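Folds abound. Consider this:
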Amino acid sequence: MTRCGTEPAAGEKRGLRMSQPTAEKHERPALAFAFRPSAAAGVFSAASLRRLGELCEVVADEPLQSLDDSHGRAVMAKVEVLVTCWGCPRIDTAVLAQAPHLKLVAHAAGTIKSFIGAEVFERGVTVVNAASANAMPVAEFTLAAILFANKRVLAFRDLYRARREMTPWGELSDPSVGNWRKTIGVVGASRIGRRVIELLQPFGFDVLLYDPHVGKTGLAAHQVGLDELMRAADVVTLHAPALDSTAGMINARRLSSMKDGATLINTARGSLVDQVALERELISGRLSAVIDVTVPEVLARTSPLYDLPNVLLTPHIAGALGSERERLGALVVDEVARFVTGKPLLHALSAATLHLQA
């Protein structure tokens, strides 16, 4: 892999190449990467890789895609810092036994559930992730979706396309159209949910929040029960993690309680919503939706969600894309720098909250 998605400089061997610092190698912690190169393309800029090479001794040019083959075991036997991203193999008890020096796992993405369990924390390994960096584009996507939903952008686009003339003033004067004094329901005071609430402040919205796991948040939102939020909101946006307790929480009864013409936005996890019930409401035309995540991840070609005019269906794009991905790598490099220099980490995770992670 070349610089995680960039072309190698002239004369460089292909691989993750780090500039060599002036400090002696034994003074720097050993570092390796573990992820699927195609998935992590663009996450680490050339500048980020150079900085890691100055902070640590990089013991393998290429990211590990297996931790239990001979090469993976040899690398893990040396590593103190493991930088991970999407496609990292699972770090289980057997891997930990082969990695006696491992002190930090720095994940340049959001959720860690797919490859890290409680045993990593029990061994005393520090874990950080870039969920805070990934929260920003999701919150921005959500803000845009809220503003467009209340403005009925999709509906007016279709009318304009069909009529090829200006929309009558009567339709534009409908008080149900527009963003002023609308009620927005935010489900989940996660990093993304909190950022969404912050972004909503300039727009004159009444913001409701439901999250059973938090007390007073200090956020500019009125905390209510989920049923009240679903009934009152003009737009409901989901930012809760995928847990046993959240599976299907947006069920048929709650969907049926939403206002006529309301919009549901899901950039969190498809499992939060009873998809059959949601499809029924959307086919009726009573509700609209912006759906970035579904179960399964790619819907069957026959799904009505692809073609409904009141649905904006996107392929899990709310998170970091393109240039936004570099923000994930930059956050992780900053955390590695803090670790190496003995400064407090800003994005450390704990075993106690692992079950609440997205």
Notes: Residues 1-15, 17-26 have pLDDT under 50 and may be disordered. The radius of gyration is 23 Å. The chain has two domains: 25-129+322-353, 134-313. Residues 335 and 346 are 7 Å apart (CA to CA).
